[in-house]
């Protein structure tokens, strides 16, 4: 066996990227492949809750205990991705007192700091809470940016020598003598960063070991190896509001149910969610009634949601797993715990382990356990350091100082840039060139956009998840063209145009579930700006050639038509 | 005691201003009330008549010829092509727009790097026509993210424009903040305000022209983003033309659009001269009717409801963008008089899945009889003394057709004419 084992990790969500970072830090050679952008699957489609564990304190105490442990770790190693908002489990008069007490007990049993506050105290914290909230349990829930966290993990993995390939789909596993020895991969646009128009290709990636960290897609990889991995994908809807109606995570304190949480996230609040098993993680119905249910149920907790503006909705698919002998009917009964499936032990197939189940909050712990397992395979005794070494951006938070003067940015924009960049702020924002705001809704400046472009090629959706540009109120109405212009220069015009079109379509997709009231008005404005003012719906660069000579060339030109030859020769023309 | 007039126009955009102006010119006593900033602030300032047919054919060279083929419910068919011409003559009379020498559309470069067909363009955009074949230098400003000159130039080239086009980016002279507003640039140029360049004070116009001259390579025309002055834009442009030695033009941009705001100013000025009165900043919140006759509308002002009465009313409150049409999860409505708006029952029928698909929402609006009176769902007249004009009308997709300004001017003209005739 080679001196340094080469591990192929499939899946660029939080789990895969956590494993890649961990293994790379332990000195192994790592290649990670992801079919879309980083966070393409479930990670990019979660509600942004950093669990305290409170939600599972009654029903699933093992998960709850893991959550509070990892909650503490992430606040430390990923401080620039976390906002410690705190959370409340609120009780309305019709909610069970017995369950409230169980929740409180459960939190204590799991080591989750929990404190009961009165309805008045809760409303003093969150003035928009319903008047009839009796009381609440306060817990250390928080908000976390999954994109930023995954990008930081990827950066760290790369610093430790890992190779990260996005837009690279595994088309088959290479199996020799009942052992997985590599991956067949199809790159959408060449190796490395994605560049529009660059020719793709296939590659065989040989590996000493393969980790399947594809979550809800794990069964698909299993099929390639002829092993059965019965992931039970369960969809949930999340509806994004245009402002933060609350600054604290608000949970409804009742056993289980749909539409029971509001998470303040960056400039928005995210309402969630549902739990419904689906067949295919990529093809399931997304329906208006699910959005209606979020609003109509959660307005019982926060009445102003009834009239509030939503900017989009999205659905995510939980990669739930339970051992085949449990047989839960209802997906809400399936544990949120994770499972390592060693296919050698389980299916007599060497060279591959799948990691299934689990939650975003415990991604690092899943990475640690998987990496321990892989290292044991090779007899490597290397300590896990991911709980102690901060992620790039969270190394030294003393940079949160006088950013306003320092970077010449107006205060709210400067503050938000620095919050997003953390300790990388110096590197990114210190520029001698003017640094105007490109995305006004989210306060994203040119320097941040350029930094993201340097990481992600010509993919503006990858720029978006790194910076939040185009994710605010106007959903790209004002900044899609600006982002395309930021690409131009580094990339040529046709590439910028393709990336621009792709971003326009992507932004449109999620707004479909929010098209009424203010957001429909916004959509009509965006449509007018893009179609009328920019004429992007009839871009002559995309379509048939235009007969320019058939159109009016101005009054001076028609007056001068008798002397057209002179003008065509470049002769002087007096204009008006 | 209510404020009385012959004609009360609700809405201060292109349609409202045009209808008030026409009604006043017909001798009516006209009052115009408007609430929010008009959508001219969002508009490019170009006046499109018809650039593409509803089937997507185009760019159309002769908008008048293409109008006669439109479907019956299109507002242009309601008012008739000849009336569109009359309305445009009035527009030409009160503005200094170009394009009235021909029926043919011009092609104008957009800040997105495409070209678009338009019937009238501000004088400041005249030298920039893409259907003119003289070479172009586009000048962008480092901090102005809405106009990236090299990108626009490359895109125009891909669009096949019949001239050489080059884009360069310069720093605006002086020490403006990176986030300086469009109006800040315009004011500096309007006043030729002093800016410091390498420690020396200069007028902003001179300093800008000097910077451009370092990159200018004999192109016959030089284009800028639409920031060349507000009140004194002609003087700014003339000064730059003289110092640069080329025709100078502006490329229209998105909000806040100076060409749109200049057009709004010109129309308000014409309205003022016509003797009409106007009041801006307060919403119409309610009305009284006797049967199918509107008697009074109420304007909310500092918490009080002020009655305004008129013989005739014109609804020119805009479409979804201007909030003349509103919606919730179940319903699309016209919020003042609750005029009927046809719409799919399920809100998921209101749009196409494609960003530039055939969106039903784009055509939301009131349907009218031939005199522009809104109709109920059963084709009865909603109110005998109410007419509608502009984007509050349904039956056309102004963004896809590039017909928004033309429909506003034509229907505003007709609504104003009819209202004045009835009020007599």
What do these coordinates show?
The complex is a heterodimer of chains A (about 575) and B (about 425). With about 575 residues, chain A is of the alpha+beta class. Chain A folds into three domains: about 5-40 and about 145-230 and about 335-375, FAD/NAD(P)-binding domain (3-Layer(bba) Sandwich); about 80-145 and about 235-320, 2-Layer Sandwich (D-Amino Acid Oxidase, Chain A, domain 2); about 430-540, no CATH class. Helix content of chain A is about 35%, strand content about 20%. In chain A, the strands form five sheets. In chain A, strands 5, 6, 7, 14, 15, 16, 17, 18 and 19 form a nine-stranded mixed beta sheet that branches. In chain A, strands 9-2-1-13-21-20 form a six-stranded mixed beta sheet, sandwiched between helices. A three-stranded antiparallel beta sheet of chain A has the order 3-8-4. In chain A, strand 16 (about 260-265) and strand 17 form a beta hairpin. Chain A starts with 5 loop residues before the first strand and ends in an 8-residue tail after the last helix. Residues about 400-405 and about 560-575 of chain A have low confidence and may be disordered. Chain B is α/β, with parallel strands linked by helices. Chain B folds into two domains: about 5-100 and about 260-310 and about 360-425, FAD/NAD(P)-binding domain (3-Layer(bba) Sandwich), CATH 3.50.50; about 125-250, Rossmann fold (3-Layer(aba) Sandwich), CATH 3.40.50. Helices cover about 30% and strands about 20% of the residues of chain B. In chain B, helix 1 links the parallel strand 1 and strand 2. In chain B, helix 1 packs parallel to helix 9 (about 260-275). Chains A and B meet through helix 15, helix 16, helix 17 and helix 18 of A and strand 4, helix 5, strand 15 and helix 10 of B.
Enumerate the spans of chain B where pLDDT stays under 50 for 5 or more consecutive residues.
none
The CATH topology of the largest domain in chain B is given as FAD/NAD(P)-binding domain
| Low-confidence sequence ranges of chain A | 399-404, 560-576
What general outline of chain B do the C-alpha atoms trace?
A: globular
Tally of contiguous helical segments of chain A: 19
Shape of chain A: globular
Structural class assignment of chain B: alpha/beta
The CATH class of the largest domain in chain B, by name, is: Alpha Beta
Oligomer: heterodimer
The count of DSSP E runs of length 2 or more, i.e. the number of strands of chain B, is 17
> What is the structural class of chain A?
alpha+beta
Mean pLDDT value of chain A: 91
């Amino acid at each position: 066996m080679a001196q340094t084992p080469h591990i192929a990790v499939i899946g660029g969500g939080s789990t895969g990227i956590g494993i890649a970072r961990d293994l790379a830090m332990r000195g192994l050679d790592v290649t990670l492949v992801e079919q879309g952008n980083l966070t393409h699957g479930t990670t990019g489609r979660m509600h942004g809750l950093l669990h305290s564990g409170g939600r599972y304190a009654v029903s699933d105490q093992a998960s709850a205990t893991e959550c509070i442990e990892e909650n503490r770790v992430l606040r430390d190693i990923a401080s620039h991705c976390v906002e410690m908002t705190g959370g409340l489990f609120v009780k309305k008069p019709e909610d069970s007192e017995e369950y409230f007490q169980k929740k409180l007990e459960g939190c204590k049993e799991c080591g989750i700091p929990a404190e009961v506050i009165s309805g008045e105290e809760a409303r003093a914290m969150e003035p928009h809470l319903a008047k009839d909230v009796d009381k609440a349990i306060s817990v250390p829930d928080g908000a976390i940016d999954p994109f930023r966290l995954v990008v930081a993990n990827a950066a760290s993995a790369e610093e430790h020598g890992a190779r990260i390939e996005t837009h690279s789909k595994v088309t088959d596993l290479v199996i020799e003598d009942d052992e997985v020895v590599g991956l067949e991969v199809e790159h959408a646009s060449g190796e490395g960063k994605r560049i529009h128009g660059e020719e793709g290709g296939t590659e065989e990636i040989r590996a000493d070991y393969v980790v399947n960290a594809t979550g809800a897609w794990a069964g698909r990889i299993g099929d390639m190896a002829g092993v059965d991995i019965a992931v039970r994908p369960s969809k949930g809807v999340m509806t994004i509001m245009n402002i933060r109606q609350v600054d604290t995570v608000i949970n409804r304190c009742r056993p289980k149910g749909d539409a029971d949480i509001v998470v303040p996230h960056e400039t928005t609040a995210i309402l969630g969610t549902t739990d419904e098993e689906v067949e295919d993680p990529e093809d399931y119905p997304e329906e208006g009634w699910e959005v209606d249910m979020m609003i109509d149920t959660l307005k019982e907790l926060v009445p102003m949601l009834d009239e509030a503006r939503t900017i989009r909705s999205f659905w995510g698919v939980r990669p739930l797993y339970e051992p085949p002998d449990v047989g839960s009917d209802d997906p809400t009964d399936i544990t949120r715990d994770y499972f390592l499936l060693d296919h050698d032990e389980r299916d007599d197939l060497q060279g591959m382990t799948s990691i299934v189940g689990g939650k975003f909050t415990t991604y690092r712990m899943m990475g640690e356990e998987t990496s321990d397992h892989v290292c044991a395979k090779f007899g490597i005794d290397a300590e896990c350091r991911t709980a102690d070494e901060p992620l790039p951006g969270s190394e030294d938070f003393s940079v949160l100082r006088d950013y306003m003067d320092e970077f010449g940015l107006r205060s709210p924009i400067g503050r938000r840039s620095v919050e997003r960049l953390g300790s990388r702020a110096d590197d990114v924002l210190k520029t001698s060139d003017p640094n105007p705001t490109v995305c006004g809704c989210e306060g994203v400046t040119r320097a941040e956009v350029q930094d993201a472009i340097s990481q992600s090629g010509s993919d503006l959706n990858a720029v978006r998840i790194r910076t939040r540009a185009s994710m605010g109120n106007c959903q790209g109405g004002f900044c899609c063209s600006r982002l395309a212009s930021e690409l131009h220069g580094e990339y040529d015009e046709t590439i910028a145009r393709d990336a621009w079109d792709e971003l326009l379509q992507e932004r449109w997709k999620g707004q479909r579930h929010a098209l009424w009231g203010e957001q429909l008005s916004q959509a009509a404005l965006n449509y007018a700006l893009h179609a009328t003012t920019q004429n992007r719906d009839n871009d002559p660069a995309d379509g048939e050639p235009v007969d320019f000579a058939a159109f009016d060339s101005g009054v001076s030109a028609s007056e001068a038509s008798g002397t057209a030859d002179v003008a065509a020769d470049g002769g002087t023309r007096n204009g008006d | 005691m209510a404020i009385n007039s012959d004609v009360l126009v609700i809405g201060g955009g292109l349609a409202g201003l045009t209808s008030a102006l026409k009604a006043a010119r017909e001798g009516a006593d006209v009052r115009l009330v408007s609430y929010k900033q008009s959508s001219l602030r969002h508009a490019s300032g170009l006046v499109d008549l018809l650039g593409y047919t509803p089937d997507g054919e185009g760019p159309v060279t002769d908008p008048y010829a293409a109008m006669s083929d439109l479907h019956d419910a299109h507002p242009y068919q309601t008012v008739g092509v000849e009336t569109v011409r009359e309305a445009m003559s009035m527009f030409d009379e009160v503005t200094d727009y170009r394009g009235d020498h021909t029926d043919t559309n011009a092609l104008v470069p957009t800040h997105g790097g495409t070209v678009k067909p338009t019937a009238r363009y501000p004088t400041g955009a005249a030298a920039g026509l893409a259907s003119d074949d003289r070479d172009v230098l586009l000048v962008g400003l480092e901090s102005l993210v809405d106009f990236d000159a090299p990108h626009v130039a490359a895109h125009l080239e891909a669009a096949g424009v019949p001239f050489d086009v080059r884009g360069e980016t310069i720093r605006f002279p002086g020490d403006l903040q990176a986030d300086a507003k469009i109006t800040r640039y315009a004011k500096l140029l309007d006043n030729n305000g002093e800016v410091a360049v390498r420690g020396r004070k200069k007028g902003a116009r001179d300093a800008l022209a000097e910077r451009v001259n370092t990159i200018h390579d004999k192109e016959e025309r030089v284009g800028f983003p639409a920031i060349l002055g507000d009140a004194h834009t002609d003087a700014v442009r003339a000064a730059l033309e003289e110092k640069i030695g080329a025709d100078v033009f502006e490329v229209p941009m998105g909000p806040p659009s100076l060409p749109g705001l200049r057009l709004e100013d010109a129309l308000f000025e014409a309205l003022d001269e016509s003797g009409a009165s106007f009041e801006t900043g307060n919403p119409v919140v309610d009305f009284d009717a006797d049967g199918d006759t509107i008697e009074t509308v109420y304007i909310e002002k500092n918490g009080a409801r002020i009655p305004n009465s008129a013989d005739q009313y014109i609804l020119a409150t805009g479409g979804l963008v201007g909030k003349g049409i509103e919606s919730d999860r179940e319903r699309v409505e016209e919020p003042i008089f609750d005029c009927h708006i046809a719409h799919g029952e399920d809100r998921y029928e209101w749009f196409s899945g494609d960003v530039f698909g055939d969106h039903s929402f784009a055509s939301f609006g009131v349907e009218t009889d031939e005199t522009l009176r809104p109709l109920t769902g059963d084709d009865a007249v909603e109110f005998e003394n109410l007419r509608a004009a502009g984007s509050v009308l349904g039956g056309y997709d102004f963004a896809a057709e590039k017909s928004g300004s033309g429909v506003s001017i034509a229907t505003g003209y007709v609504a104003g004419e009819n209202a004045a005739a009835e009020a007599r």
